Task: structure prediction
Amino acid sequence: MTRLKFQLEATASGSRARAGRFTTLHNEVLTPTFMPVGTHAAVRAQRREDVLESGAGVLLANTYHLMLRPGVEIFERFGGIHRFMNWPRSVLTDSGGFQIFSLPGSRSVSEECAEFKSYVDQTLIRLSPESSIAAQRAIGSDIMMVLDQCVASTVERGVAQRAMELTHRWALRSLAARGDSPQALFGIVQGASYADLRAASARAIADMPFDGYAIGGLAVGEGAGAREDCTGIVTELLPLDKPRYLMGVGTTRDLLEAVHRGVDMFDCILPTALAKQGVAFTSLGRRDLRRAAYRGMDGPIDPKCGCATCKTYSIAYLFHLNKVQEPQGWQLLGLHNVHFYMQLMRTMREHILADDWLPFYRSQRDLLDARDSYGAPVRHVTKAQRQKLKLKMGRYEVVIRDCVGHIREMASGEVMHSVNDPAEEARSLYVEQSRLGERLAEPDAPPLVVWDVGLGAGSNAMAAIQAVEAMRGPPDGPRAARRLTLVSFENDLDSLKLALRHPAWFKHLRHAAPRGLLADNRWSSAAAGVDWLLLRGDFNATKFTAPLPDVIFFDPFSFKTDSALWTLAAFRELANLLSAKAAELFTYSYSTSVRAALLAAGFYVARGRGTGSKAETTIGLTPRAVVDSDGRELAHGRELLGEEWLAKWRRSDAQAPLGTDSSDASWHHAVRAHPQFQTRFVYP
Ligand SMILES: [Zn+2]
Result:
């Protein structure tokens, strides 16, 4: 019996994004689709009319909660959930597994079943694959889910493997228990964050005759990067002619990424749960109504949205309702969020069908996740709260500006990447200026080696990794030609560890790479072609152990905090080490004495682009990076400092490179006589 007639309509070029449709016992559903969550047979604070109006074709209901209250017998009396809640379209019920394993309380798992105490009256309840299916048959959903053992995605391998194998055996029992019921049944792929387990599970479950396939056990502790990797691994192995469902995910950006990887169905509580906190998903990114900036603001919360909330109310009014904790504020914002999610799914579908998915995907990636970028910070953090939030580690503390975290060295007060958006600065100063993408696209070249001097909170390194991953593009797309070897130097890892405690404020760290690096001193991605190495200790010593670089991101704290890295002696040592190499060094400093030190050490010095309040920054080039052995110009439009800088330097109070004293003035001649200032200097 074919229970869901899934029809694949289109797959986007350069992506796995798909458009399709299937028919349930109640209606036809167009995919990709989002299923609002009706935990207790109602979407939180939403009227059924408004959920219908949003275009939702499937509602998700939680078997575990419905078994406890109102109880299966009530559904039997009403002939199922559709009549009970008067819902005319499809319902998908989960198996109860996720709640059993994720809610607090005692439970035990055997081959036969899971046993747990009811949170309502503490009675002991046994849930087996058979009893879960029996409950879902009584509830009368259109799509049932198998009972699975859900473990945190970060558990150790042995635990993950045992849970996966039990899930496979339970999947077969669930299929048998379904019998001749006309309700569809989906299998669930488990395997935590282990790529090989995920692949093994996908193969095993895909071999069973389910009507659709779900990816479970994600969104429970792993980073967005790990989740996206797992999703890609699994969808590659699932049959094309059945729907795929990523359970419990996620934000609008998560949905975009998963659709790109070939997922068709989603559910998540976020649209209504965040509405209660005053957060709206909009075409402008996320807007947080707790921000004072919205007080009195006219116009709808999303100018592009056609929902009843946006057609009727101003931001100022919604801000006010949220402020006074009026339940209607929650309802109105939830209505908008559900509508926005459904509209986003329809828009994605249109772009897949029109086969212009890739440009749409690229344009939305950052936009969907953008946070309101103006107005006062959400809250003032008091000293006591700061302790509670664990904002300090070693000599560092976290400071938050406009919901973006920065690391401050407490003794000096110096803040890493003190500009508004560290990720943007990292991208602009280091990734773009070094032409990382262009260099990686060079065919038949050895790995590109990038030194990341001063790992800090990982902004520059992650900007490089994300740039590479963006280049690798869709899972099936073309690969950049060269591998990237990224070598990070750091003598105090507390700044990274501290930032990793607060992924909400250090968005760039929501990726598997930083934790992998901390654990093993290395992280590699075969898919992205990246090897990331960590050299602990002082750069001045460890640099001799690293492969020689093509590019240096020179971003330690300044001279007053990290003095040893900025001296003439240190730059001379570096210049000697790189004498046979074409290498470019990028740094945020444009102080006269730093430039003098680079010049005196033998680097050529060019102006770098500005950032924040700095009009310019600095690029140091080894002689080989200025000309190659054939005398060909390689400067890529770099603007070397000229006579006017030298004149300024002569008048400056800060002529001397850092770390020099009056006993040695050889630097003075070295700067004046530097080839880049010789008249008629074009390129030697
Ligand atoms: Zn709206």
Remarks:
- The chain has a mean pLDDT of 89.
- Residues 457 and 496 are 4 Å apart (CA to CA).
